[in-house]
Design goal:
Shape: globular
Structural class: alpha/beta
Largest sheet: 6 strands, mixed
Helix content: 40-55%
Number of helices: 12
Strand order of the largest sheet: 1-4-5-6-8-7
Strand content: 5-15%
Number of strands: 8
Length: 299
């Protein structure tokens, strides 16, 4: 092997290959692992399940509403759970979950007749949000689909209840104590947020990742997925900032524009780090290589 070829080979070994698009989140990536998800479930439900094989992940990868995926959906003991992660307050979560659960049920009963004389049984639904935004909220609160109805009634014909947990560092200490991964994730987010107040975002994310590895916080996960985590964390932060701007105008009309701007901002940040090539950035940020090259010429 020539010197240059050997050097290129060593660089490939050192540099994690990014293989996820920006619409994934660090939270979703962490808890897509069954063992981690079961630990989170046990913490929320104060249960002690040990067989992760009994948990069936049924997340609808292509179910996108308002440009966002359902984060995690799974069935356990004939109950269907929809878990969402949020970095900004969104009062429309119950309505979004209504669309998600309808799509889940449609998938589950596909090829089965709903016109037969037999009752088609379906799993009981449960809706949970894990919130780690900067706007202060209670440790736990519930929101209802009926809150959005024009005419409130005491007994609505259709209802959907969502429970939101504040998973910022220092909140829901009992929940955090029962799920070490969730606790360490909250520490990582707090570090990114704190460092971002002192330095450029890409430096803040890199420092948070490095410091967490040194302190054995999500260390194995961060070592294995460093490139993806850095890119996703930068995008998540950019996206939150874009959503804040959009809320000053008309949020619903500007979501797609905001997502596009956030992905462009993230691509620029990644280009400036010099640690990602155009192909990796295009894949992570859902842009074409031509768009990335144009941004590279503008930076």
């Amino acid at each position: 092997m020539t010197g240059k070829a050997h050097e290129a080979n060593e660089t490939t070994k050192r540099t994690p290959v990014a293989n996820r698009k920006f619409k994934d989140t660090v939270f979703r990536m962490l808890f897509s692992d069954k063992e981690a998800l079961l630990s989170l479930y046990n913490a929320v439900n104060n249960s002690h399940y040990t067989d992760s094989g009994a948990l069936e992940i049924v997340t609808l990868e292509n179910a996108i509403y308002m440009g966002m995926k359902n984060d995690l959906a799974f069935i356990l003991d004939m109950n269907l759970y929809l878990y969402e992660h949020q970095s900004t307050m969104n009062p429309n979560i119950p309505l979004r979950d209504l669309f998600y659960i309808a799509a889940e049920y449609q998938k589950l009963v596909d090829k089965k007749s709903l016109y037969s004389s037999a009752l088609q049984k379906i799993p009981n639904p449960h809706f949970i949000v894990f919130y780690n935004g900067s706007t202060p909220i209670d440790d736990c609160y519930t929101s209802r689909l009926s809150d959005a109805f024009y005419h409130a009634t005491g007994n609505p014909s259709l209802e959907l209840i969502v429970t939101t947990f504040n998973v910022n560092a220092g909140h829901n200490t009992e929940l955090m104590s029962h799920c070490q991964i969730l606790n360490e994730y909250s520490i990582y987010v707090a570090k990114v947020r704190s460092f971002a107040e002192q330095m450029p975002l890409d430096d803040a994310v890199q420092k948070a990742v490095t410091e967490c590895i040194q302190e054995n916080i999500l260390a194995d996960f961060l070592r294995k997925n460093q490139a993806e985590v850095i890119a996703m964390s930068i995008f998540e932060y950019d996206k939150v900032e874009e959503e804040k701007k959009l809320r000053k105008a008309e949020f619903d009309a500007g979501v797609e524009q905001g997502l596009k701007q956030a992905s462009t901002d993230t691509a620029l940040r990644l280009l400036k780090t010099g640690k990602f090539d155009a192909k990796e950035i295009a894949k992570l940020c859902n842009l074409s290589i031509e768009e990335v090259n144009q941004l590279n010429n503008q930076k």
